[in-house]
Amino acid sequence: MGRGKIEIKRIENTTNRQVTFCKRRNGLLKKAYELSVLCDAEVALIVFSSRGRLYEYSNNTNIRQSIERYKKAHANTSGSTSAVEVNTLQYYQQETAKMRHEIQVLDTRNEHFMGNCLGNLSPKELKHLESKIERAISRIRNKKVLHLSSILDLQHAQQSGMVSGGSELDPLHTFDSRGNYYQVEMLEPGPHGYSHGQDQTALHLGYDMKANTSGKNLL
């Protein structure tokens, strides 16, 4: 039968602990020697016992040379890491400054579109800004007209359905090319004729106009 698995924990018995240390120390030194020979590697091993006794191995002439080599390699690695960190920090600082500049430019443009902070603009820049605003207003107005036209078409379709069903028509609504709202209502003649002479219709720009005839309101 094979040996059972040994639990890795501190050996409480002093004698057993010392025996195990000697066996494992010798095995570790042997493995270090084999590694240096088989792989042509520079190996340095330092072990202190629980009593403070030093055990060392090095395939170099002097273990101090291996220690000095380790210190130099560690210093170079630390220096390289510091350089990378500095470069990374500089990169993020530059990116932050660039983003702040872009935000400032956008804020300035927004102020110009609102009609503010125009004192430092040249006549050419003002003309260019005016053209951009006019184009933007034109696009907004066209979008509004299209939207209102779709609403008007829907109202006409609903009114056509009401006419076919015999229902009474609501007042007509329409919009001009600039998107202004008009309401057209038919006026019934009073005892003295129409309130606006020969006109039989009244245009209302966003509000109701009332015609008084013989003390009565004609809508």
Layout of helices and strands:
Elements (H helix, E strand, L loop, with lengths): L13 H26 L4 E5 L5 E5 L4 H51 L9 H42 L7 E4 L5 E6 L14 E4 L6 E3 L2 E3 L1
Antiparallel strand pairs: 1-2, 3-4, 4-5, 6-7
Task: Name the descriptors.
two-stranded antiparallel sheet; SRF-like; 3-stranded antiparallel β-sheet; single chain; 3 helices; alpha+beta
Describe this structure in words.
This protein has 219 residues and is α+β, with helices and mostly antiparallel strands. Among the domains are: 11-59, Transcription factor, MADS-box (SRF-like); 148-218, no CATH class. It is built from three helices and seven strands, in the order αββααβββββ. It has helices at residues 14-39, 63-113, 123-164, and strands at 44-48, 54-58, 172-175, 181-186, 201-204, 211-213, 216-218. The strands form three sheets. Strands 3-4-5 form a three-stranded antiparallel beta sheet. Strands 1-2 form a two-stranded antiparallel ribbon. The model is unreliable at 167-173 and 182-219 (pLDDT under 50). This is AGAMOUS-like MADS-box protein.
Helix and strand pattern: HEEHHEEEEE
- Rg over CA atoms: 48 Å
Mean pLDDT: 75
Main structural class: alpha+beta
Helix content: 40-55%
Number of helices: 3
Low-pLDDT sequence parts: 167-173, 182-219
User: Strands of the largest sheet, in order across it?
Assistant: 3-4-5
The first-to-last residue Cα distance is 113 Å
Biggest sheet details: 3 strands, antiparallel
Instruction: Choose one word for the global shape.
Output: elongated
Please give the number of β-strands. 7
Strand content: 5-15%
